[in-house]
Design a protein that fits this description.
The chain is mainly alpha-helical and 144 residues long. It is 45% helix and 8% strand.
């Protein structure tokens, strides 16, 4: 059974675009989205979130301060401001951070760590640190 049967693209009551299959989604993206913003959404699951960029809708409100967000994950991250939660901890100096990116930055700047998912945010020691730092730099250049 196709989960896209008779669903509107944006979910809004005024949306006239109905999609019945993933092929229809691809056709829609190739015409409407591509011509609208020169963006290609490769996964069907990201289509609705992408459409929110064009509609300006922010369906996820913070019940504490009223700020609205386009993505649920952004709201969850924002809620840490109100709760004071800091789930990411530096194992070297026991500092706590609200966001993973803050921990990665701290590890690089304060402890000379090479931070990527393969190394799992560990602080590297000699003699491997120079080799892995070179690996990190080369892989960053290759991604450009």
């Amino acid at each position: 059974m196709c989960v896209w049967r008779e669903r509107s693209v944006c979910g809004g009551p005024k949306c006239k675009i109905k999609l019945k299959s993933s092929v229809d989604v691809i056709r829609y993206l190739a015409t409407f989205i591509w011509l609208t913003c020169v963006s290609v959404v490769l996964q069907v699951a990201h289509l609705r979130a992408h459409v929110l960029i064009h509609t300006g809708e922010k369906p996820y409100p913070c019940h504490t301060c009223g700020t609205r967000f386009r993505h649920l994950q952004t709201l969850k991250s924002h809620l840490r401001i109100h709760t004071g939660e800091k789930p990411y901890t530096c194992e070297k100096c026991d500092l706590h951070f609200r966001h993973k990116s803050q921990l990665r930055l701290h590890l690089r700047q304060k402890h000379g760590a090479v931070t990527n998912t393969k190394i799992r945010y560990k602080v590297l020691t000699d003699p491997y640190q120079p080799i892995l730092q070179a690996y990190y730099i080369i892989s960053a250049i290759l991604k450009l």
